[in-house]
């Protein structure tokens, strides 16, 4: 699945953001801190806002010890490390990365010198955020920025925004980002368009979101589903996956294992669909449902039913629940029906220190709760309501270009902290090859454009602290006993190189070998060819022709939406074996899967590519490649390797 982030309303009359002030007003000691990631489409400047309008200004403080974060994570994740699997406590994470006293003092001092009294300055519990309620006039003076009201040409909705904002040079090193500022809400909010018709929300149904259908295919009758492995090139079933990836019979032995699946409202499963699938493929699960954790007023809605509303959740749960049966699955249903949610919201629920009810979530990216909109969830944000599952799969994403570097990096660091706690975080790598959502690529200014030619990578897949899952296929006319190729039916496996994140140490040899032995035929105007950036995906699994039960029928679906939950199921099996042996879960798996000792536990994919942006994209080849990563898992080989580790 390949989505832009949820763009959501604050419910303040119009959204609050900023445009850079005229140069004559910018103080000489201020420097630009952030620029808007992409320019808004279909919005025009309307007028200046009222200067006495109050907005909640949130300042994310620079965290301590981040320069050591990768090394700390490698210490508990690399198979050669004597500290392998010695995961941290939550308090240890909080204490290690809390901003320094100097950082807190510098930023608070700057605010006081700027005229804000102590009563107006609030600090979050983990000292990561400072909130100040201020007027637009005060914020413009503080940030040397000028707010303008933008109007959406179709809906008439209004919001404020800016291209840049500035802070004093001596303060800049103490601030990660300030919200609301440059993260423009590019899409209309729920207030101005028909319910569930917002373009841009993570859980919003549309023809370009979720798993994909072949436009010429028809529903599959139960009687035509092959009972064995003869037709896996045309229909993927549980048996096909077990044969492809040498999956042993799974009989859970641990009661402590956990596996979470993230879904964003209004995406929701239908109980009848689950039972229809289970009756055909896993009868013992008929009537069984996931353990549901409702985050930020979420609901598993059944009012709206269609492939677009139910396809993602049905797919994820049907396959994950079946593969790890009778291991329970935890559904992390996120966001209410009015405002929805973004990635930070599910992170809040499993990561109490990150939960920023006092001033961190981004109204242009995340749901802000209590929801001020009519009918919205009025409770406080769901902060730390569940311990992080040992595996979490999320089949949602956005174009990396639509997030500022500060926003993406801060969120990415939280995934590293979850790794320190012992969680494996999986994201699908996208369904549009080297292009972005909807097949759009970037122009010379870094904007998504129908005529763009620069590759448009996916986030969070580009974050080096998650495991990105690409997609493969059983090639037409082939069997499960023959090598797979990169998915080239209906979808193309998302892959490429980040424009934000540097290459992590664990993949340095693999990526440098690819670039040296198989140099892509593209130049720096088409992708980040510096040889120093994060490459993705990390691994792959089949993502073509999955049989799912959806809205009372069997359909065939395609996407990295399939690859992520299936891979998560395999890691869950491995965790069960380790827990039963008195060991800890595997946590962050990337250092292991890139290591030499794990090389033979993956099926190398050497056929196919991930076309996009008017090019063939990259090519799957020997070793790691930016189409299928290190390859697809052989679970029977991975199990003893992970079991042999401390």
From TrEMBL:
Function: Secreted tripeptidyl-peptidase which degrades proteins at acidic pHs and is involved in virulence.
Superkingdom of the source species: Eukaryota
Residue spans of biased composition, Basic residues class: 184-197
Cofactor section: Ca(2+)
Signal peptide: 1-20
Subcellular location, record wording: Secreted, Extracellular space
Protein name per Swiss-Prot or TrEMBL: tripeptidyl-peptidase II
Residues forming the catalytic site: 312 (charge relay system), 316 (charge relay system), 561 (charge relay system)
Gene Ontology CC: extracellular region
PANTHER family linked to this entry: PROTEASE S8 TRIPEPTIDYL PEPTIDASE I CLN2, SERINE PROTEASE AORO, PUTATIVE (AFU_ORTHOLOGUE AFUA_6G10250)-RELATED
Entry EC number(s): 3.4.14.10
Domain Peptidase S53 intervals: 235-645
GO biological process: proteolysis
Matches recorded under InterPro entries: Peptidase_S8/S53_dom_sf, S53_propep, Sedolisin_dom, Tripeptidyl-peptidase_I
Catalytic reaction(s) noted: Release of an N-terminal tripeptide from a polypeptide
Any one Gene Ontology molecular-function term assigned to this protein's record: tripeptidyl-peptidase activity
Co-factor note (free text): Binds 1 Ca(2+) ion per subunit.
Pfam families xref list: Pro-kuma_activ (PF09286)
SMART domains: Pro-kuma_activ (SM00944)
EC main group: hydrolase
